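Colleagues,

For the teaching module next term, I've prepared a clean inverse folding example: a structure given as C-alpha coordinates, and then the sequence designed for it. I'd like students to try predicting residues themselves before seeing the answer, so please don't circulate the second half yet.
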Protein backbone atom coordinates (compact mmCIF):
# COMPACT_ATOMS: atom_id res chain seq x y z
CA UNK A 1 0.00 0.00 0.00
CA UNK A 2 1.41 3.36 -1.02
CA UNK A 3 -0.11 6.82 -1.18
CA UNK A 4 0.60 10.26 -2.57
CA UNK A 5 -0.37 13.44 -0.69
CA UNK A 6 -0.37 16.81 -2.49
CA UNK A 7 -0.55 19.94 -0.35
CA UNK A 8 -2.30 22.92 -1.95
CA UNK A 9 -1.27 25.90 0.21
CA UNK A 10 -4.02 28.47 -0.36
CA UNK A 11 -7.21 29.49 1.44
CA UNK A 12 -9.81 32.15 0.79
CA UNK A 13 -9.56 33.45 4.35
CA UNK A 14 -8.05 32.53 7.70
CA UNK A 15 -10.26 30.36 9.93
CA UNK A 16 -9.96 31.43 13.55
CA UNK A 17 -8.66 28.05 14.78
CA UNK A 18 -6.40 26.85 11.97
CA UNK A 19 -2.60 26.66 11.93
CA UNK A 20 -2.13 24.53 8.81
CA UNK A 21 0.18 25.97 6.17
CA UNK A 22 -1.61 28.20 3.65
CA UNK A 23 -1.53 31.67 2.16
CA UNK A 24 -4.40 33.96 1.20
CA UNK A 25 -2.53 35.56 -1.69
CA UNK A 26 -2.33 33.27 -4.71
CA UNK A 27 0.29 35.32 -6.52
CA UNK A 28 2.79 32.45 -6.52
CA UNK A 29 0.24 29.81 -7.55
CA UNK A 30 1.66 29.06 -11.03
CA UNK A 31 5.12 28.62 -9.51
CA UNK A 32 3.80 26.42 -6.69
CA UNK A 33 1.97 24.13 -9.13
CA UNK A 34 5.10 23.96 -11.30
CA UNK A 35 7.27 23.15 -8.28
CA UNK A 36 4.87 20.44 -7.10
CA UNK A 37 5.13 18.84 -10.56
CA UNK A 38 8.93 19.01 -10.35
CA UNK A 39 8.91 17.43 -6.90
CA UNK A 40 6.67 14.62 -8.17
CA UNK A 41 8.99 13.98 -11.10
CA UNK A 42 12.02 13.94 -8.79
CA UNK A 43 10.37 11.13 -6.86
CA UNK A 44 9.24 8.76 -9.58
CA UNK A 45 11.29 5.95 -8.03
CA UNK A 46 10.04 6.62 -4.50
CA UNK A 47 7.74 3.60 -4.38
CA UNK A 48 10.18 1.20 -6.03
CA UNK A 49 7.57 -0.31 -8.31
CA UNK A 50 4.91 -0.53 -5.56
CA UNK A 51 1.45 0.42 -6.75
CA UNK A 52 -0.04 3.71 -5.60
CA UNK A 53 -3.40 2.96 -4.00
CA UNK A 54 -4.42 6.44 -2.89
CA UNK A 55 -3.96 10.02 -4.08
CA UNK A 56 -5.02 12.75 -1.67
CA UNK A 57 -5.20 16.48 -2.36
CA UNK A 58 -5.18 18.27 0.99
CA UNK A 59 -4.54 21.76 2.22
CA UNK A 60 -5.07 24.59 2.61
CA UNK A 61 -7.86 24.35 0.08
CA UNK A 62 -7.35 22.11 -2.96
CA UNK A 63 -10.76 23.06 -4.38
CA UNK A 64 -9.47 26.62 -4.80
CA UNK A 65 -7.25 25.71 -7.77
CA UNK A 66 -8.88 25.37 -11.16
CA UNK A 67 -9.86 22.11 -12.80
CA UNK A 68 -7.10 22.33 -15.41
CA UNK A 69 -4.40 22.62 -12.73
CA UNK A 70 -5.85 19.69 -10.81
CA UNK A 71 -6.23 17.53 -13.90
CA UNK A 72 -2.66 18.20 -15.01
CA UNK A 73 -1.39 17.03 -11.63
CA UNK A 74 -3.47 13.84 -11.83
CA UNK A 75 -2.29 13.14 -15.40
CA UNK A 76 1.34 13.67 -14.40
CA UNK A 77 0.93 11.21 -11.51
CA UNK A 78 -0.67 8.63 -13.82
CA UNK A 79 2.10 9.03 -16.38
CA UNK A 80 4.94 8.62 -13.91
CA UNK A 81 3.80 6.27 -11.15
CA UNK A 82 2.30 2.83 -11.13
CA UNK A 83 -1.32 3.47 -10.19
CA UNK A 84 -3.62 0.77 -8.87
CA UNK A 85 -6.74 0.17 -10.95
CA UNK A 86 -9.31 1.24 -8.35
CA UNK A 87 -7.14 4.00 -6.86
CA UNK A 88 -8.88 6.24 -4.30
CA UNK A 89 -8.51 9.89 -5.35
CA UNK A 90 -9.71 12.36 -2.71
CA UNK A 91 -9.94 16.13 -2.92
CA UNK A 92 -10.55 18.27 0.16
CA UNK A 93 -13.18 20.84 -0.80
CA UNK A 94 -14.48 23.91 0.93
CA UNK A 95 -18.26 24.21 0.49
CA UNK A 96 -18.10 27.66 -1.15
CA UNK A 97 -16.03 26.25 -4.04
CA UNK A 98 -18.48 23.52 -4.95
CA UNK A 99 -20.44 24.09 -8.16
CA UNK A 100 -22.13 21.62 -10.51
CA UNK A 101 -19.53 22.33 -13.23
CA UNK A 102 -16.62 21.68 -10.88
CA UNK A 103 -18.11 18.46 -9.58
CA UNK A 104 -18.82 17.16 -13.07
CA UNK A 105 -15.24 17.80 -14.17
CA UNK A 106 -13.89 16.25 -10.96
CA UNK A 107 -15.68 13.04 -11.83
CA UNK A 108 -14.45 13.11 -15.40
CA UNK A 109 -10.83 13.38 -14.26
CA UNK A 110 -11.17 10.32 -12.03
CA UNK A 111 -11.65 11.92 -8.62
CA UNK A 112 -13.86 9.47 -6.69
CA UNK A 113 -13.94 10.83 -3.14
CA UNK A 114 -14.61 14.27 -1.68
CA UNK A 115 -13.79 15.48 1.80
CA UNK A 116 -15.94 18.55 2.41
CA UNK A 117 -14.97 20.94 5.20
CA UNK A 118 -18.40 21.69 6.57
CA UNK A 119 -17.30 22.17 10.24
CA UNK A 120 -20.89 22.98 11.27
CA UNK A 121 -24.36 23.52 9.85
CA UNK A 122 -24.96 26.35 12.33
CA UNK A 123 -24.50 29.93 11.10
CA UNK A 124 -23.32 31.43 14.37
CA UNK A 125 -20.72 28.67 14.80
CA UNK A 126 -19.53 29.17 11.22
CA UNK A 127 -19.23 32.89 11.83
CA UNK A 128 -17.28 32.31 15.01
CA UNK A 129 -14.87 30.06 13.08
CA UNK A 130 -14.59 32.70 10.32
CA UNK A 131 -15.64 30.23 7.66
CA UNK A 132 -16.43 31.73 4.25
CA UNK A 133 -19.59 29.63 3.80
CA UNK A 134 -22.94 29.61 5.56
CA UNK A 135 -25.08 26.69 6.72
CA UNK A 136 -27.16 26.66 3.56
CA UNK A 137 -24.08 26.45 1.33
CA UNK A 138 -22.70 23.66 3.54
CA UNK A 139 -25.91 21.72 2.90
CA UNK A 140 -26.22 22.41 -0.83
CA UNK A 141 -22.52 21.68 -1.48
CA UNK A 142 -23.21 18.13 -0.32
CA UNK A 143 -26.43 17.70 -2.30
CA UNK A 144 -24.74 19.12 -5.43
CA UNK A 145 -21.93 16.58 -5.09
CA UNK A 146 -24.39 13.74 -4.47
CA UNK A 147 -26.64 14.68 -7.38
CA UNK A 148 -23.65 14.70 -9.69
CA UNK A 149 -22.41 11.22 -8.96
CA UNK A 150 -20.42 11.38 -5.71
CA UNK A 151 -21.44 8.77 -3.16
CA UNK A 152 -18.10 8.57 -1.41
CA UNK A 153 -18.27 11.84 0.49
CA UNK A 154 -16.74 12.63 3.84
CA UNK A 155 -17.49 15.74 5.82
CA UNK A 156 -15.44 17.40 8.57
CA UNK A 157 -17.10 18.68 11.72
CA UNK A 158 -15.48 20.48 14.63
CA UNK A 159 -16.93 20.11 18.13
CA UNK A 160 -15.88 21.43 21.53
CA UNK A 161 -16.19 25.05 20.37
CA UNK A 162 -16.36 27.71 23.10
CA UNK A 163 -20.01 28.11 24.14
CA UNK A 164 -21.12 25.28 21.84
CA UNK A 165 -24.42 23.87 23.01
CA UNK A 166 -24.93 20.13 22.90
CA UNK A 167 -28.17 20.67 20.97
CA UNK A 168 -26.29 22.46 18.19
CA UNK A 169 -24.01 19.44 17.86
CA UNK A 170 -27.04 17.13 17.94
CA UNK A 171 -28.52 19.08 15.04
CA UNK A 172 -25.25 18.85 13.08
CA UNK A 173 -25.29 15.09 13.54
CA UNK A 174 -28.91 14.77 12.50
CA UNK A 175 -28.10 16.54 9.21
CA UNK A 176 -25.38 13.94 8.60
CA UNK A 177 -28.11 11.34 8.87
CA UNK A 178 -30.58 13.25 6.77
CA UNK A 179 -28.01 13.60 3.96
CA UNK A 180 -26.97 9.93 4.26
CA UNK A 181 -23.30 10.87 4.57
CA UNK A 182 -21.08 7.81 4.23
CA UNK A 183 -18.08 9.09 6.17
CA UNK A 184 -17.44 11.90 8.62
CA UNK A 185 -14.55 13.19 10.68
CA UNK A 186 -15.42 14.88 13.98
CA UNK A 187 -12.46 16.82 15.36
CA UNK A 188 -12.33 18.06 18.89
CA UNK A 189 -11.24 21.70 18.69
CA UNK A 190 -7.53 22.15 19.39
CA UNK A 191 -6.46 25.61 20.46
CA UNK A 192 -3.38 26.17 18.32
CA UNK A 193 -0.87 28.89 19.06
CA UNK A 194 -0.69 31.74 16.54
CA UNK A 195 -4.41 31.53 15.79
CA UNK A 196 -7.03 34.17 16.45
CA UNK A 197 -8.77 31.78 18.80
CA UNK A 198 -5.64 31.32 20.92
CA UNK A 199 -5.29 35.06 21.11
CA UNK A 200 -8.89 35.56 22.25
CA UNK A 201 -8.57 32.87 24.91
CA UNK A 202 -5.22 34.22 26.06
CA UNK A 203 -6.70 37.66 26.51
CA UNK A 204 -9.60 36.05 28.41
CA UNK A 205 -12.10 37.42 25.92
CA UNK A 206 -13.56 33.95 25.53
CA UNK A 207 -13.28 30.75 27.54
CA UNK A 208 -12.60 27.29 26.15
CA UNK A 209 -15.42 24.80 26.56
CA UNK A 210 -15.09 22.98 29.89
CA UNK A 211 -13.63 19.46 29.72
CA UNK A 212 -16.77 17.74 30.99
CA UNK A 213 -18.79 19.37 28.21
CA UNK A 214 -16.28 18.26 25.56
CA UNK A 215 -16.53 14.71 26.94
CA UNK A 216 -20.33 14.92 26.83
CA UNK A 217 -20.10 15.96 23.17
CA UNK A 218 -17.66 13.14 22.35
CA UNK A 219 -20.04 10.65 23.98
CA UNK A 220 -22.94 12.05 21.96
CA UNK A 221 -20.97 11.55 18.73
CA UNK A 222 -20.02 8.01 19.73
CA UNK A 223 -23.62 7.09 20.56
CA UNK A 224 -24.83 8.68 17.34
CA UNK A 225 -22.35 6.54 15.39
CA UNK A 226 -23.50 3.36 17.15
CA UNK A 227 -27.19 4.10 16.64
CA UNK A 228 -26.68 4.86 12.97
CA UNK A 229 -24.26 2.07 12.13
CA UNK A 230 -21.16 4.11 11.52
CA UNK A 231 -17.93 2.26 12.23
CA UNK A 232 -15.91 4.37 14.66
CA UNK A 233 -12.63 3.20 13.16
CA UNK A 234 -10.37 5.96 14.42
CA UNK A 235 -10.81 8.46 17.26
CA UNK A 236 -11.97 11.19 14.86
CA UNK A 237 -13.21 9.08 11.92
CA UNK A 238 -16.55 7.38 11.32
CA UNK A 239 -17.68 5.44 8.26
CA UNK A 240 -20.48 3.29 6.92
CA UNK A 241 -19.38 -0.21 5.93
CA UNK A 242 -17.31 -0.06 2.73
CA UNK A 243 -16.46 3.64 3.09
CA UNK A 244 -13.45 3.68 5.42
CA UNK A 245 -10.84 6.12 4.08
CA UNK A 246 -8.04 4.17 2.46
CA UNK A 247 -5.61 7.08 2.39
CA UNK A 248 -5.72 7.89 6.11
CA UNK A 249 -5.24 4.22 6.96
CA UNK A 250 -1.77 4.39 5.39
CA UNK A 251 -0.77 6.78 8.20
CA UNK A 252 -1.67 4.38 10.98
CA UNK A 253 -0.66 1.21 9.15
CA UNK A 254 2.99 2.29 8.83
CA UNK A 255 2.69 2.36 5.06
CA UNK A 256 4.83 4.32 2.62
CA UNK A 257 3.58 7.70 1.44
CA UNK A 258 5.02 10.55 -0.54
CA UNK A 259 3.93 14.07 0.37
CA UNK A 260 4.62 16.90 -2.07
CA UNK A 261 4.13 20.65 -1.78
CA UNK A 262 5.06 23.08 1.01
CA UNK A 263 4.66 21.59 4.53
CA UNK A 264 3.92 18.08 3.19
CA UNK A 265 5.32 15.06 5.05
CA UNK A 266 6.63 11.80 3.58
CA UNK A 267 7.54 8.42 5.03
CA UNK A 268 9.54 5.84 3.07
CA UNK A 269 9.48 3.08 5.67
CA UNK A 270 12.59 4.36 7.47
CA UNK A 271 12.78 8.12 7.21
CA UNK A 272 10.36 10.97 7.72
CA UNK A 273 10.71 13.99 5.51
CA UNK A 274 9.17 17.43 6.15
CA UNK A 275 8.93 20.06 3.48
CA UNK A 276 9.35 23.64 4.61
CA UNK A 277 6.13 25.48 5.54
CA UNK A 278 6.82 28.43 3.29
CA UNK A 279 5.78 28.81 -0.34
CA UNK A 280 8.76 31.06 -1.09
CA UNK A 281 11.38 28.74 0.42
CA UNK A 282 9.75 25.71 -1.19
CA UNK A 283 9.84 27.26 -4.68
CA UNK A 284 13.45 28.43 -4.15
CA UNK A 285 14.52 24.98 -2.94
CA UNK A 286 12.89 23.16 -5.84
CA UNK A 287 14.50 25.52 -8.36
CA UNK A 288 17.93 25.69 -6.79
CA UNK A 289 19.53 22.43 -5.74
CA UNK A 290 21.87 24.23 -3.30
CA UNK A 291 18.93 25.44 -1.15
CA UNK A 292 17.37 22.80 1.05
CA UNK A 293 13.60 22.84 1.29
CA UNK A 294 13.09 19.85 3.57
CA UNK A 295 14.33 18.15 6.73
CA UNK A 296 14.85 14.43 7.16
CA UNK A 297 14.71 12.36 10.31
CA UNK A 298 15.65 8.70 10.65
CA UNK A 299 13.36 7.15 13.22
CA UNK A 300 15.00 5.11 15.95
CA UNK A 301 13.48 1.77 16.97
CA UNK A 302 11.95 3.43 20.03
CA UNK A 303 10.46 6.22 17.91
CA UNK A 304 8.93 3.65 15.54
CA UNK A 305 7.49 1.82 18.55
CA UNK A 306 6.09 5.03 20.08
CA UNK A 307 4.47 5.93 16.77
CA UNK A 308 2.95 2.48 16.51
CA UNK A 309 1.35 2.93 19.94
CA UNK A 310 0.20 6.46 19.29
CA UNK A 311 -1.46 5.76 15.94
CA UNK A 312 -2.86 2.31 16.66
CA UNK A 313 -4.40 3.04 20.04
CA UNK A 314 -6.47 5.62 18.16
CA UNK A 315 -7.92 2.92 15.89
CA UNK A 316 -10.52 0.19 16.15
CA UNK A 317 -7.77 -2.35 15.37
CA UNK A 318 -5.82 -1.47 18.50
CA UNK A 319 -2.30 -2.50 19.50
CA UNK A 320 -1.32 -6.11 18.86
CA UNK A 321 1.43 -7.68 20.95
CA UNK A 322 2.11 -10.09 18.07
CA UNK A 323 2.94 -7.09 15.89
CA UNK A 324 5.09 -5.61 18.66
CA UNK A 325 7.04 -8.87 18.93
CA UNK A 326 7.42 -9.21 15.16
CA UNK A 327 8.47 -5.61 14.55
CA UNK A 328 10.36 -4.77 17.74
CA UNK A 329 11.22 -8.02 19.55
CA UNK A 330 10.39 -9.80 22.77
CA UNK A 331 11.72 -7.20 25.22
CA UNK A 332 9.47 -4.54 23.72
CA UNK A 333 6.49 -6.84 24.12
CA UNK A 334 7.40 -7.43 27.77
CA UNK A 335 7.79 -3.68 28.39
CA UNK A 336 4.40 -3.12 26.78
CA UNK A 337 2.66 -5.76 28.90
CA UNK A 338 4.11 -4.23 32.05
CA UNK A 339 3.16 -0.64 31.18
CA UNK A 340 -0.38 -1.48 30.03
CA UNK A 341 -1.37 -3.00 33.41
CA UNK A 342 -2.30 0.25 35.10
CA UNK A 343 -4.56 1.27 32.21
CA UNK A 344 -6.19 -2.16 32.12
CA UNK A 345 -6.90 -1.93 35.84
CA UNK A 346 -8.54 1.46 35.37
CA UNK A 347 -10.70 0.00 32.54
CA UNK A 348 -9.31 2.46 30.03
CA UNK A 349 -8.12 -0.48 27.94
CA UNK A 350 -9.86 -3.67 26.90
CA UNK A 351 -7.93 -6.78 26.02
CA UNK A 352 -8.87 -9.69 23.79
CA UNK A 353 -6.13 -12.27 23.19
CA UNK A 354 -3.14 -10.35 21.80
CA UNK A 355 -5.12 -7.15 21.00
CA UNK A 356 -5.34 -4.14 23.31
CA UNK A 357 -7.89 -1.42 22.51
CA UNK A 358 -9.19 1.71 24.18
CA UNK A 359 -12.51 1.37 25.98
CA UNK A 360 -15.12 4.13 25.44
CA UNK A 361 -13.79 5.82 28.58
CA UNK A 362 -10.21 5.38 27.37
CA UNK A 363 -10.86 7.00 23.98
CA UNK A 364 -11.12 10.40 25.63
CA UNK A 365 -7.59 9.98 26.96
CA UNK A 366 -6.07 8.28 23.87
CA UNK A 367 -3.04 10.53 23.51
CA UNK A 368 -2.36 10.64 27.26
CA UNK A 369 -2.36 6.84 27.50
CA UNK A 370 -0.01 6.27 24.59
CA UNK A 371 2.40 9.03 25.62
CA UNK A 372 2.50 7.55 29.13
CA UNK A 373 3.70 4.30 27.56
CA UNK A 374 6.31 5.85 25.26
CA UNK A 375 9.87 4.63 25.53
CA UNK A 376 12.37 7.45 25.93
CA UNK A 377 15.49 7.50 23.73
C1 LIG B 1 -6.57 21.69 7.31
S1 LIG B 1 -8.22 21.54 6.94
C2 LIG B 1 -8.21 21.46 5.21
C3 LIG B 1 -9.57 21.32 4.60
C4 LIG B 1 -10.27 22.53 4.10
N1 LIG B 1 -9.47 23.64 3.87
C5 LIG B 1 -11.34 22.94 5.08
O1 LIG B 1 -11.12 23.81 5.88
O2 LIG B 1 -12.40 22.39 4.99
C6 LIG B 1 -8.65 19.91 7.44
C7 LIG B 1 -9.56 19.85 8.63
O3 LIG B 1 -8.83 20.01 9.80
C8 LIG B 1 -9.71 20.39 10.84
N2 LIG B 1 -9.01 21.34 11.70
C9 LIG B 1 -8.13 22.30 11.34
N3 LIG B 1 -7.69 22.97 12.43
C10 LIG B 1 -8.28 22.40 13.51
C11 LIG B 1 -8.23 22.66 14.93
N4 LIG B 1 -7.48 23.61 15.43
N5 LIG B 1 -8.98 21.87 15.75
C12 LIG B 1 -9.74 20.87 15.24
N6 LIG B 1 -9.84 20.62 13.91
C13 LIG B 1 -9.12 21.37 13.06
C14 LIG B 1 -10.94 20.99 10.16
O4 LIG B 1 -12.07 20.20 10.45
C15 LIG B 1 -10.61 20.93 8.70
O5 LIG B 1 -11.70 20.59 7.90
S1 LIG C 1 -9.55 25.15 8.11
FE1 LIG C 1 -9.25 24.86 5.92
S2 LIG C 1 -10.06 26.76 4.99
FE2 LIG C 1 -9.75 27.19 7.12
S3 LIG C 1 -7.74 28.13 7.21
FE3 LIG C 1 -7.50 25.91 7.65
S4 LIG C 1 -7.05 24.98 5.75
FE4 LIG C 1 -7.86 27.02 5.28
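(Answer key — instructors only)
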Amino acid sequence: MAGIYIHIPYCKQRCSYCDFHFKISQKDRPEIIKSIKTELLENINYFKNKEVKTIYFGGGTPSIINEKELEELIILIYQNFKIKKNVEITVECNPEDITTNKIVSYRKMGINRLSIGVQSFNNSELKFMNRPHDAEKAYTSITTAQQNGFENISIDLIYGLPNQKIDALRRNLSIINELKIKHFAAYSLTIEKKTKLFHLINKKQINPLQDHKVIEQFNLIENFSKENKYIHYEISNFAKQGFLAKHNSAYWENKIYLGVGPSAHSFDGKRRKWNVSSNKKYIEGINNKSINYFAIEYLSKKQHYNEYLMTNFRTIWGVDTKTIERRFGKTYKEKFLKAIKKWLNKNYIINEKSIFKLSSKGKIFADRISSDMFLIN
